[in-house]
Amino acid sequence: MKLLTIGALAASAGVHVETVRFYQRKGLLPEPDRLPGSIRRYGQSDLERLRFVKSAKGLGFSLDEIGQLLKLADGTHCREAAELASRHLASVQARLREL
Fold first, then answer.
1. Can you give the residue ranges of every domain in the chain?
2. Taking 80 as the threshold, does the pLDDT of residue 13 lie above it?
3. Level-2 CATH architecture, domain 2-98
4. pTM over 0.90
């Protein structure tokens, strides 16, 4: 059931409305249809996806990497997701060594 406006979705995830719109333009978050004379409504799955994007971004994943992870999210690509995470970990470890 889709109950949240874009403002409520953004507030629930702890981001700005413009962040939601940016992620929609990047293809990381779907943009729900707008009923005639109505505003868009978002559901729990949209909120969970937005929180995932925010969390992955906080862990240092690029938006492209997050997009790849989201494409692998159906549960049948665990090996590919693990490889992507391993490459990211290696990058973080290399930066730590540089520090």
1. 2-98
2. yes
3. Orthogonal Bundle (1.10)
4. no
What would you measure as the largest C-alpha separation in the chain, in angstroms?
A: 56
Residues forming beta bridges with residue 4, ordered by sequence position: 42
CA dihedral 70, 47, 34, 73 (to 10 degrees): 20
Length of the chain: 99
Instruction: Give the model confidence (pLDDT) of 35-63 as tens digits.
Output: 777 888 999 999 999 999 999 999 888 99
In order, the DSSP letters of 27-79 are TSS------TT----EEHHHHHHHHHHHHHHHTT--HHHHHHHHHTTTTT-HH
Assign 4 to helix, strand or coil. Answer: strand
The Cα 38–Cα 29 span in angstroms is 20
